[in-house]
Every structure is written in structure tokens, then in C-alpha cells.
Design brief:
The chain is built from 11 helices and 11 strands. By secondary structure, it is α/β, with parallel strands linked by helices. The strands form 3 sheets. A 7-stranded mixed beta sheet has the order 5-4-3-6-9-11-10, with helices on both faces. The chain has a two-stranded antiparallel ribbon with strand order 1-2.
Length: 277
């Protein structure tokens, strides 16, 4: 098949530009074809037996990262599979915010680690810190451990349900970070079908009547787990920013700061635990 035929086969699901980018990524990362190779008809030289099953998965809406089995995050290659959320570019900005303090030490806790992208990135960037990462999913932890091994990061991974077993964690930590589920089910209709059909629902959605479910549990646990002056960092749903600021204040946190992502959406929050104030 020609390059044009390949990307045209994805246009029922994607805009033309996105379809082209997906096919170029496949041809580059799986078959080693550069853009120049593609322009010169390199795709036509590929074995149809090799190409057809991969294109079939893409045509069914499976994300390219799952088809390739990997995703880039903060300059590192992470293994991914349908059991974990695909790392997003905006989450890189959260890691950069945390790691900006070159002298950051102490303990760092990543809640809901998934592929381990946050925990591993911070372990590599903050070598003096001891990083712990928890997730409820054994499958996700298996992927995270493999990623840590391949990238040479030291992270203490543990299987734990933060909603019901936070008491099993022991601090102190100087930082707790989480990109928890924060999308309400009522927001489904605005989401891309390939996300809904292929990425893990448990890593995406919270009940419509309790959008701050995980934030509340983590903030409450943080009162016990954070050292004085320790910080919470969250990726958030912009729709519930104000409610989260109020929740953090009610839990005794202060100096709350919000930041926008590269798309201009209020996406991150940092709040400090100062128990004597």
C-alpha cells in the first residue's frame, strides 16, 4: 500500500493531519522509514503481512502507542499496554515543575503511577530523592517495574488502593504527586472514541457526584504522610479547580498555586502542608 492509501484508511477516525502523523510514526518507529523514505515510496516496499495487522489495529481505533508498545515522555521511552494510561505531554509539565528545584531531596510519593512515567522521571531527575509509587493495578505495576529497570531508575513500587488502604503507607514525604482519575462520566461524549474503547476506564473516570474523590483521599492522607512544609502536586480537571482549592484549604493546606498547561488550560495545582499555621 502507498503512504496515501495507508493514512486515508484512518480518516474515518482521525482528521487528515493526525492520520498522516500516526502513519508516519508507525513507519518510522516500527519499520525505520524516514520521511524521505516515505516520500520516495518506501511504504510500498513493506511486506503486506507485516503491515496489515498493525494497520488493522489502528483502523479499529487502537492508539498508536499501544500498537507500538511504547510512548515518549520527558525524553524517555516508556513501555505501554492497554492496562495503563498513555502518558500525556501535559503531564511532562507537572514533572518539570516538581523537578525544577535542583536540590529537591527527601521522599517523593506518586499515587496512581500507571506506567510509572511520573515516578521514574522524578527518580531520574532527583537522584537524591527516595521515590515510592503506588497503584491499585498489578498489571500496571508490572509495566512500571519493567520501565524502571530499562531506564535505570530506582523506585519502590507497591500495590495499594489509596481510597481504602492509605493507612498502610508510612512517611514522611517531602512531595506527594498524583495524576488521578478526574473525568466525570458525563464528559464521555466529548472524548475521542479511541480513548474510551482502549484506555483503562479506572484510570480515567470518577463518579459524576464526586469528581474530587481521589483528591480528597490523597489530601487527607497527606496530612499524615507529608513532612511540615511538604507539598502536594496534582494534575487536575479545570472544571473543578475552584472546588479543589476549597478542599485543600479545608484540609489545612496553604500557599496553593495553579498553573496552566501548554494549551492554556488550568491543569496543575501545588499546595503546601504547614500544620502549625
Amino acid at each position: 500500500m502507498t503512504y496515501q492509501e495507508l493514512w486515508h484508511s484512518l480518516t474515518p477516525l482521525y482528521e487528515p493531519g493526525e492520520a498522516q502523523a500516526i502513519v508516519r510514526m508507525l513507519l518510522d518507529e516500527r519499520f525505520g522509514l524516514s520521511l524521505a523514505d516515505v516520500v520516495c515510496g518506501g511504504a510500498e516496499q513493506l511486506s503486506e503481512d507485516d503491515l496489515r495487522p498493525l494497520m488493522s489495529r489502528l483502523q479499529q481505533g487502537e492508539p498508536i502507542q499501544y500498537v507500538l508498545g511504547r510512548a515518549m515522555f520527558c525524553g524517555h521511552t516508556f513501555g505501554v499496554a492497554p492496562g495503563v494510561l498513555i502518558p500525556r505531554p501535559e503531564t511532562e509539565e507537572l514533572c518539570q515543575w516538581i523537578a525544577a528545584d535542583a536540590h529537591r531531596g527527601g521522599g517523593i510519593l506518586d499515587v496512581g503511577t500507571g506506567s510509572g512515567c511520573i515516578a521514574i522521571t522524578l527518580a531520574l531527575a532527583c537522584r537524591q530523592a527516595h521515590v515510592t509509587a503506588v497503584d491499585i493495578s498489578a498489571d500496571a505495576l508490572a509495566i512500571a517495574r519493567q520501565n524502571a529497570s530499562q531506564l535505570g531508575a530506582t523506585v519502590d513500587f507497591r500495590q495499594l488502593d489509596i481510597l481504602h488502604s492509605a493507612s498502610l503507607l508510612e512517611g514522611p514525604f517531602s512531595v506527594i504527586v498524583s495524576n488521578p482519575p478526574y473525568i466525570c462520566h458525563k464528559e464521555r461524549e466529548s472524548m475521542h472514541e479511541n480513548v474510551l474503547r482502549h484506555e483503562p476506564e479506572g484510570a480515567l473516570f470518577v463518579p459524576d457526584d464526586d469528581p474530587l474523590l481521589f483528591y480528597r483521599a490523597i489530601a487527607h492522607a497527606g496530612r499524615r504522610l507529608l513532612s511540615p512544609g511538604g507539598e502536594l502536586f496534582f494534575e487536575i480537571n479545570p472544571l473543578y479547580h475552584d472546588a479543589l482549592v476549597t478542599l485543600l484549604s479545608d484540609e489545612g493546606y496553604s500557599e496553593t498555586e495553579s498553573r496552566r498547561d501548554a494549551f492554556g488550560k488550568t491543569r496543575f495545582i501545588k499546595s503546601t502542608f504547614k500544620p502549625n499555621e
